[in-house]
């Protein structure tokens, strides 16, 4: 199959899986359920649509003949791949924390992401939703935002590799943020795009950012769903500490 058609199908399948939840929602509402109840009842069907979409996307991407330079380049060996996955997990957590602090204390954006809060609340009420957050969601997102959008931009932009990489990360990262409808935290999503795109280019394996993304989301779910109270205490302590540190940092950098 030609790469163009596979890319189009990949994006369409991703969009379709996002919109598929509207069908069961409409059905449950027509049966007399409230919107809130219809949303909850639709979650298993939503997860199932993502599972099916992930399988199809993986299979059709295996059929690509004219691969991009990232996909056609020499792959990292098994040991290096595992090392990048583990390292990518820790780097993604550090990047999320770093960009989150910049976003909150320098750009003055809200600490809490409404999108993340909604997702975590859904995971608490409907544990099956965790499958979407930690497994099939990252699979589809990495195929769409890294393999298709970033990969095609990186392929199309000629010139120095660092320049094409930077432009591709910025554009794909912004689109990544728009897809989550969380514009107050655009910087964080772009930071994640930087980490996952770097893993993709360094290993030439889409599986690396996929597993790193899964691991990061899984860690967030564990911390915010299973250890929510302790995380709340840690956040309060961080706010107290930062209250004293940030004025010093700002004065040093003349912010």
Give a quick rundown of the structure:
The chain is built from 11 helices and no strands. With 255 residues, it is mainly α.
Calculate Rg over CA atoms. Answer: 20 Å
Count of DSSP strands: 0
What proportion strand? under 5%
> Mind summarizing the main beta sheet?
none
Which segments are poorly predicted (pLDDT under 50) over 5 or more consecutive residues? 248-255
Question: What's the helical proportion of residues?
Answer: over 70%
Q: Shape from CA axes?
A: globular
Order of helices and strands: HHHHHHHHHHH
The total of helices stands at 11
- Secondary structure class reads mainly alpha
**Terminal Cα span:** 52 Å
The overall pLDDT average reads 89
Describe the structure.
The chain has 255 residues and is mainly alpha-helical. The protein is 81% helix and 0% strand. It contains 11 helices and no strands. It is globular and about 55 Å long.
């Amino acid at each position: 199959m030609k790469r163009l058609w596979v890319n189009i199908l990949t994006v369409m399948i991703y969009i379709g899986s996002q919109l598929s939840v509207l069908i069961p929602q409409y059905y449950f509402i027509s049966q007399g359920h409230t919107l809130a109840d219809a949303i909850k009842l639709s979650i298993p069907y939503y997860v199932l649509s993502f599972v099916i979409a992930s399988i199809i996307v993986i299979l059709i991407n295996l059929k690509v003949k004219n691969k991009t330079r990232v996909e056609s380049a020499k792959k990292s060996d098994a040991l290096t791949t595992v090392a990048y996955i583990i390292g990518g997990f820790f780097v993604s957590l550090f990047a999320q924390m770093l960009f989150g602090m910049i976003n909150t204390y320098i750009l003055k954006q809200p600490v809490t992401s409404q999108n993340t809060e909604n997702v975590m609340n859904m995971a608490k009420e409907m544990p099956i939703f965790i499958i979407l957050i930690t497994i099939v969601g990252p699979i589809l997102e990495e195929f769409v935002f890294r393999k298709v959008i970033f990969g095609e931009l990186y392929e199309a932009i000629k010139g120095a590799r660092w320049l094409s990489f930077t432009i591709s990360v910025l554009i794909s990262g912004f689109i990544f943020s728009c897809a989550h409808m969380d514009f107050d935290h655009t910087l964080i999503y772009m930071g994640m795009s930087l980490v996952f795109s770097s893993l993709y280019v360094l290993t030439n394996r889409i599986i690396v950012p996929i597993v790193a993304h899964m691991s990061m989301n899984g860690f967030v779910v564990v911390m915010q769903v299973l250890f929510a109270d302790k995380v709340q205490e840690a956040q309060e302590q961080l706010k107290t500490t930062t209250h004293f540190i940030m004025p010093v940092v700002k004065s040093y950098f003349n912010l």
